[in-house]
Design a protein that fits this description.
Blueprint lengths: L3 E6 L4 E8 L2 E9 L6 H15 L9 E5 L5 H15 L6 E4 L1 H13 L7 E7 L4 E8 L9 E4 L15 E4 L14 E2 L11 H10 L29
Parallel strand pairs: 1-4, 4-5, 6-9, 9-10
Antiparallel strand pairs: 1-2, 2-3, 6-7, 7-8
Helix pairs in contact: 1-2
């Protein structure tokens, strides 16, 4: 039997909910507010809508999956609170996965099947000249850890083959392009909840669950001390 997992995406300005059964998305609902954050008002409404569409209750689920950061402190806190409230009464497993890795899944979906090797740089805006970022291969393999990054200080592609094209995904990409003109920006600023599906399914198969009561999102607060080093890659 395929697991039924409710996915929550609240790490960005997008508030999004999806319900998957195995690798099939059977219901989803979401929206973006570019002027602010709507998670407190919309998240539980979307959860109810998705479950109603699928004719399910929370007790019918096998797990809840959460895009767990980095990202907006407020959005992540609301998403974590909602997820804990869903799993606790029913003893459901809680799955947490990287918000940047979910963005990389969305990038691969946008690019489709391609024999050309490439890299994916997922970047979420962290204000000023800072982003939260991680680098992935075309296969989805992670090449760098999620980390806060000052664009004028830290080399982005250290250790990555220079000849490969790099696609940027997320709302932190635009401000990186000034110093990185060869970066190929994809038209996807925010992950949707369904982009977490392969990550949640992988965790389900491995029984890689988090302890709901003790769980906290991966806020990735930046440590800004230090001396500027190498700058953006000269591409």
């Amino acid at each position: 039997m395929h697991p039924r997992i409710l996915l929550l995406e609240t790490a960005s300005r997008r508030c999004d909910v999806a319900l998957i059964e195995g690798d099939r998305c059977i219901a989803e609902r979401g929206s973006v507010d570019l002027q602010g954050f709507q998670h407190a008002e919309k998240l539980h409404v979307y959860i109810e809508d998705v479950l109603r569409h699928a004719d399910m209750r929370v007790s019918d689920l096998d797990a809840v999956g959460l895009s767990a950061g980095p990202g907006s402190y407020t959005g992540l806190r609301i998403g974590a609170s909602a997820a804990k409230g869903l799993v606790a009464p029913h003893g459901l497993p809680l799955i947490a996965y990287s918000s940047l890795e979910a963005l990389a899944v969305g990038a691969r979906e946008s690019l489709g099947s391609s024999a050309e090797p490439y890299g994916i740089w997922a970047a979420m805006d962290a204000r000023r000249m800072e982003v939260y970022s991680a680098l992935f291969a075309a296969s989805g393999e992670r090449r760098t850890a999620d980390a806060p990054q000052l664009l004028e200080e830290v080399p982005i592609l250290e250790g990555f083959p220079e000849e490969l094209p790099i696609y940027g995904v997320g709302d932190g990409v635009e401000k990186a392009q000034t110093g990185w003109p060869a970066l190929r920006r994809l038209p996807l600023d925010y992950a949707q909840a369904r982009h977490g599906a392969p990550l949640a399914l992988r965790a389900w198969e491995r029984k890689d669950f988090v302890e709901a009561a003790a769980f906290t999102p991966n806020y990735l607060k930046a440590f800004r001390a230090g001396v500027p080093r190498l700058g953006l890659p000269k591409l």
